[in-house]
């Protein structure tokens, strides 16, 4: 014969635990505390079609279907029982609102209310959301669905320039936004590339290739090479890259479409690194300006100064001086 519950046990309002999961993590990958709770709970509620249901069944945990309203849950927990509610996509907002209303009325002895994250997003998990959103936009947006790589090329340049400006301004809010805009270009181009009939590739191929490249070019981290200073790392990087590319000329791989000053410095740097005694061309007349600029770019590169950045900084200061003069003139 079962003994009657003690008054203290009967008065125990129990507890309600809202178990949350992440749609970015495989449903069965719950934390150990979450599995312990599910196996020990007096009642587990989950909506029909909840992605955890198959895994609960495998673990011997029976789900009782959708959670009742707040009042029903309170009755279920009476006597010290534990009810677990597996949160849906909306986080069970209706249920939590009902429980808050009951608690605020002051007329009820409420069960203990707990929130237990059953799965946490891994770093970079929001990138999965980005890929999913980009897939839908590409499929449904009249403008985005017709874009080509060539259509987007100019936007890539614009976004990079805006990123550089945010860095030079020291504006971290803008920096965060501009990094997102540059990332959008990568994801957009990869989505377009996935549709190519002859040579398709997607964002996973892009990321996979980048991972392989980074590992290969950092043998001092992932291999047996040694590099303990920035200079040693750069030398190792250049050697590894040269072996990887097997280029016939040090000028291969230098994009000619970049700004002229940056192009001049890049070519001068390649020649200097390869120890090639190539002097900038000498000319006369209007072309002489180009030769002088090239010489200055080579001089700056050899001194460890990025001439493009240096000129831009001076140009910005010049702009400020012009504005100051304009203000003084109008006052």
From TrEMBL:
Could you tell me which residue ranges the NTP pyrophosphohydrolase MazG-like domain spans?
Answer: 148-222
UniProt superkingdom = Bacteria
Per its record, how is this protein called by name?
Answer: Nucleoside triphosphate pyrophosphohydrolase
**Which Enzyme Commission number(s) are listed?**
3.6.1.9
Q: Which Pfam families match?
A: MazG
Q: Which PANTHER family match?
A: NUCLEOSIDE TRIPHOSPHATE PYROPHOSPHOHYDROLASE (PTHR30522)
* Record's keyword annotation contains Hydrolase: yes
- Taxonomy of the source species: Bacteria, Bacillati, Actinomycetota, Actinomycetes, Kitasatosporales
């Amino acid at each position: 014969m079962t003994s009657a519950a003690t008054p203290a046990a009967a008065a125990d309002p129990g507890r309600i635990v809202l178990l949350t999961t992440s749609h970015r993590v495989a449903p069965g990958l719950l934390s150990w505390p979450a599995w312990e709770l599910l196996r020990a709970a007096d009642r587990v509620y989950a909506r029909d079609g909840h992605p955890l249901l198959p895994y609960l069944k495998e673990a011997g945990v029976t789900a009782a279907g959708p959670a009742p309203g707040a009042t029903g849950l309170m009755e279920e927990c009476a006597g010290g029982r534990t009810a677990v509610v597996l949160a849906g996509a909306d986080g069970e907002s209706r249920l939590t609102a009902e429980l808050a209303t009951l608690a605020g009325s002051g007329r009820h002895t409420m069960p203990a209310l707990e929130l237990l994250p059953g799965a946490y997003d891994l770093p970079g998990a929001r990138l999965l959301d980005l890929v999913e959103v980009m897939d839908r936009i590409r499929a449904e947006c009249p403008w985005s669905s017709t874009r080509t790589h060539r259509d987007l090329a100019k936007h890539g340049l614009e976004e990079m320039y805006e990123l550089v400006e945010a860095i030079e301004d020291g504006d971290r809010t803008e920096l965060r936004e501009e990094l997102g805009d540059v990332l959008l270009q990568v994801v957009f181009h990869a989505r377009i590339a996935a549709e190519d009939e002859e040579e398709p590739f997607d964002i996973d191929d892009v990321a996979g290739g980048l991972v392989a490249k980074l590992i290969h070019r950092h043998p001092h981290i992932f291999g047996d090479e040694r590099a303990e200073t920035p200079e040693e790392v750069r030398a190792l990087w250049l050697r590894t890259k040269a072996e990887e590319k097997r280029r016939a000329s040090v000028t291969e791989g230098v994009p000619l479409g970049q700004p002229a000053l940056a192009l001049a410095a890049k070519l001068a740097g390649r020649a200097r690194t390869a120890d090639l005694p190539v002097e900038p061309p000498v000319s006369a007349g209007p072309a002489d300006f180009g030769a002088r600029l090239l010489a200055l770019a080579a001089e700056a590169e050899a001194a460890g100064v990025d001439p493009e950045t240096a000129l831009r900084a001076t140009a910005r200061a010049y702009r400020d001086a012009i504005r100051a003069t304009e203000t003084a003139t109008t006052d």
